Amino acid sequence: MAKSRRLVLAQPEDTPSIIASAVYADGQKIAEVPIEDVGEWSRKPDHVVWIGLHEPSLDVLRRLQAEFGLHELAIEDALKAHQRPKLEQYGEALFVVAHGPDAGGPNCVR
Fold first, then answer.
1. What does the pLDDT profile of the chain (110 residues) look like in tens digits?
2. What pLDDT is recorded for position 7?
3. How far apart are CA 23 and CA 67, in angstroms?
4. Using CA atoms, how far apart are residues 45 and 42, in angstroms rounded to an integer?
């Protein structure tokens, strides 16, 4: 049986720090899900959960920690703003820091 993979990085809801939360299978987005359900989806074989965060609060990170059993160091890293891009593995979870394009920020070149 294939193992599911968990990629932590999710969904507009009442928390503005959650950008998106979706489940993918076979390279296709199959559902947008609330973060309270991502742990269940991540345990399904061949499913990937993608959670996009921007400056998450400790409360949001603790909710994700509860869903995924995240390592305390991953929570500590996620609280630090402006980290350089990186990929770290904590047990079966991948912790990703990525920066997307900034269409209107002060560093934008036109």
1. 445 554 444 334 456 788 889 999 999 999 999 988 888 998 899 999 988 888 888 999 998 888 888 889 888 888 887 778 889 888 777 788 877 776 666 665 55
2. 45
3. 14
4. 8
Domain ranges of the chain: 5-97
C-beta contacts of 86-94 below 8 A and 24+ residues apart: 92/3, 92/6, 93/6, 93/8, 93/68, 93/69, 94/5, 94/6, 94/7, 94/8
The domain defined by 5-97 folds into Beta Polymerase; domain 2 (3.30.460)
Residue 53 CA to chain centroid, in angstroms? Answer: 6
Residues 43 and 79: their CA atoms lie apart, in Å, by 25
| Residue 94: burial class (beta carbons within 10 Å; 0-12, 13-18, 19+) | middle
List of residues 6+ apart from 2 with CB closer than 8 A: 45, 46
* Tokens (6 digits) for 15: 């928390």
CA angle 71, 5, 43 (to 5 degrees): 85
